[in-house]
Specification:
Layout lengths: L9 E7 L2 E8 L29 H18 L2 E5 L11 H18 L5 E2 L13 E4 H7 L5 E8 H13 L10 E5 L2 E7 L2 E2 L5 E7 H4 L13 E7 H14 L12 E3 L3
Parallel strand pairs: 4-10, 7-12
Antiparallel strand pairs: 1-2, 3-5, 6-10, 6-11, 7-8, 8-9
Helix pairs in contact: 2-6
């Protein structure tokens, strides 16, 4: 058993109308030496209503574990010199996450990656200035999205970036950029060079987007490499690697994505 935490369990009492009516449970397992590789993920939406009742038996079963989980989530893994939040068309937090996807994909898949993307809607929290705890990463990335690679022809990548431009801009990894004009992407650069419609690019993304999520239909059906590596774990690894090098978690606006007057 190693101490890589790939999932977590958290019990929190929520007060509704001065009474505790709901317990939220997220169950996550502690990674072992045998690596499980998810084949696919499915998502479902559940409506939480005031009529929901507490499952007392389940809560009592989980209580002995809640203390250990709370301590794990408070473990400090890094430090930020500034508060980082998401913003369109570009943000420091978005740049940080897109760089993480690209760089950790290169490490995990042992191959050169041309560009990495992070969908704007997938960023669910900010990173505050100061210590970064493990729990902060779970707040930032609460979904079990996987880091995947796809080999994408330039004309398909252009359609994907046009989709991003129409949405106001998503984070893109360093050395790549584009300009948004009238919700259209122009001046697209990948790895420091103008986008070539006939070149095959290695793209790092989440499985959610690679499977056509957020209207990225042009990527759906393109074969992907999947090692079962959660984006959440990639973020933890990335932050811990920076900490080992004595570096803080920070970044800056680099005009990777910008909007010009229409």
């Amino acid at each position: 058993m190693n101490d890589k935490i790939s999932t977590f369990l958290l019990v929190q009492n929520i007060k509704m109308h001065s009474k505790s009516l709901l317990n939220i449970l997220l169950i996550v397992t502690v990674g072992c030496s045998t690596v499980s590789k998810p084949i696919s993920l499915s998502y479902a939406t559940y409506k939480v209503a005031q009529q929901a009742k507490t499952d007392t038996a389940l809560v009592n079963m989980l209580l002995p574990y809640s203390g250990d989980v709370s301590r794990m989530m408070k473990k400090v893994i890094g430090f930020s010199t500034t508060t980082m939040y998401k913003k369109q068309p570009e943000s420091v937090l978005g740049n940080f996450m897109a760089d993480c996807i690209k760089e950790m994909a290169e490490v995990k898949f042992q191959t050169k990656v041309d560009v990495g993307f992070m969908n704007q809607g997938g960023i669910r929290a900010e990173i505050n200035k100061g210590n970064i705890a493990l729990g902060n990463v779970y707040e930032l990335m609460p979904f079990d999205n996987l880091v995947v690679l796809q080999r994408v022809k330039g004309d398909v990548l252009e359609k994907f970036i046009q989709r991003i431009a129409a949405d106001g801009g998503w984070p893109i990894s360093k050395n790549s950029s584009f300009v948004i004009q009238s919700k259209k992407a122009i001046e697209i650069y990948i790895n420091g060079k103008p986008l070539d419609m006939n070149t095959i690019y290695t793209v790092a993304n989440t499985d959610y987007i690679a499977n056509g999520g957020s209207n990225a239909d042009m990527l759906k059906g393109i074969p992907m490499q999947n090692s079962g590596y959660l984006l959440r774990d990639a973020l933890v690894d990335y932050i811990e690697n920076l900490t080992k090098q004595g570096k803080p978690v920070d970044g800056k606006i680099e005009n990777r994505v910008r909007i010009i007057n229409e």
